[in-house]
Design a protein that fits this description.
Layout (H helix, E strand, L loop, with lengths): L10 E4 L4 E4 L2 E5 L9 E5 L5 E2 L4 E3 H9 L6 E6 L16 E6 L7 E2 L3 H6 L1 H30 L6 H18 L10 H4 L1
Antiparallel strand pairs: 1-2, 1-6, 3-4, 4-5, 7-8, 8-9
């Protein structure tokens, strides 16, 4: 059964229209024989009702922006090495995921075609993980900061999670040592 994901008077980003709106009315859709609505739509005053996947909560947008300004996105590129009918076993036949980490829609992560064809579902999962990495890092930082504010009040399992989060953040921030250049003295 469907549950409302947003509430009345909540400010949301309407992805399909590209504008902010306020939810004016929650519209449940009922079916005979069910005790709960089978679908929930939202009236935001734009002339039609929207489903929850068309909307993003304001706090989610703020969390994405707070992730060091990173706006990593998942785009789909045309599959040049196979026709869509030849790769019907792929989750999105005729395309492959490209993770873009730059504002100009270039730079980031791509996968070789043969590797994608070998296990497309694994590559799709990797692409989604990479695009959410800045949000996960922001979550780890928030957890560490929360526990650091009052370490005595946090339960032991939460303290352990905060320590792991801090270790992960240190690992990300540390650069590997540069290889030592060949000395001119050795050549003489």
């Amino acid at each position: 059964m469907a549950k409302a994901q947003f509430h009345r008077n909540q400010k949301v980003w309407v992805e399909t229209v590209g504008t902010w709106a306020v939810i004016e009315k929650i519209v449940p859709i009922w079916a005979k024989g069910f005790d709960e609505p089978v679908r929930i739509t939202y009236d935001v005053g734009l002339g039609r009702d929207f489903l929850s996947h068309d909307l993003k909560a304001e706090d989610l947008i703020e969390a994405e922006e707070a992730a060091d300004g990173a706006s990593w996105r998942l785009l789909r590129a045309r599959n040049k090495w196979q026709a869509p009918e030849d790769c019907s076993h792929h989750p999105f036949p005729g395309t492959f995921p490209v993770v873009v980490t730059d504002e100009a829609d270039w730079g980031g992560w791509r996968v070789p075609g043969a590797e994608y064809d070998r296990d497309p579902r694994k590559i799709e999962a990797q692409a989604r993980l990479i695009t959410t990495a800045p949000l996960l890092l922001a979550l780890a930082r928030a957890l560490s900061a929360l526990v650091a504010e009052s370490p005595d009040d946090a339960p032991a399992p939460i303290q352990a999670l905060a320590q792991k989060a801090a270790a992960i953040e240190r690992h990300i921030a540390e650069l590997p040592p540069a290889p030592e250049p060949a000395h001119a003295d050795a050549a003489e």
